Amino acid sequence: MSSLKKCIAAAGLTVLGGLSLGGCATQDYVDEHIAVVSDRVSALEAKVQQVDSTAQAANATAQSAATAAQSANQRLDQLTSRVDGLEQRLMSKPARN
User: d(Cα 42, Cα 45) in Å, to the nearest integer?
Assistant: First the structure.
């Protein structure tokens, strides 16, 4: 009986060893899946680059608009003081009837 148990145990270990080795990935399997992941990563990198370019263009446009707005505000401030001066002159002159 003891040798039968040893024989069954050895057979069981052999079967388990064979099954566990069958679970290993082959080089082709790994290469195939890495290629799929690599393609996805490349596509995402291209999209990120496109979004980055769009964001940089939008930032440049926003900075240009801010500069133009600042210039317009400066001109408005200059005109406001001139208009105030003209109003004061008109108020100080007597009305013509």
Answer: 5
Asked, for residue 3, whether it belongs to a domain, the answer is no
3-state secondary structure the chain: CHHHHHHHHHHHHHHHHHHHHHCCCCHHHHHHHHHHHHHHHHHHHHHHHHHHHHHHHHHHHHHHHHHHHHHHHHHHHHHHHHHHHHHHHHHHCCCCC
pLDDT tens digits for 43-57? 999 999 999 999 999
CA distances from 71 to 40, 49, 76, 81, 83 (A): 47, 33, 9, 16, 18
Q: Which structural domain, as residue segments, surrounds residue 29? A: 25-62
Rounded to whole angstroms, the Cα distance separating 89 from 80 reads: 14
